[in-house]
Write a structure and sequence with these properties.
There is one protein chain. This protein is mainly alpha-helical. The protein has one domain. The protein is elongated and about 50 Å long.
């Protein structure tokens, strides 16, 4: 409704059922900063680091392998670890 072509395509896909403007597009609402989303309430270590730090030794090899391959392809290791967590929770037999 604001004239943004990509937003209009998205609205058609999700079939939005309201005409109310969402708060995220109103000027007085400040969006969360990316770092706040990344770190959450804890301002020290990213959530994925805290998660993998508690892995048993038999799963640590996956984290080490991801680090090596992420370097080869110049991809953020934390992004890859986050995707693995979401897709299979590090179950090596899982099929994505």
């Amino acid at each position: 409704m604001q004239g943004h072509f990509e937003a209009q395509k998205m609205l058609e896909i999700i079939q939005i059922r309201t005409l109310d403007t969402p708060p995220c597009v109103l000027a007085e609402v400040e969006p969360k900063r990316a770092l706040d989303l990344y770190y959450g309430d804890y301002k020290g270590t990213p959530a994925i680091d805290r998660y993998v730090d508690n892995f048993p030794k038999n799963k640590r090899w996956v984290v080490n392998l991801v680090g090596t391959i992420a370097d080869w392809y110049n991809v953020d290791e934390k992004l890859v670890l986050s995707i693995i967590t979401s897709e299979s929770n590090f179950k090596v037999s899982a099929m994505s």
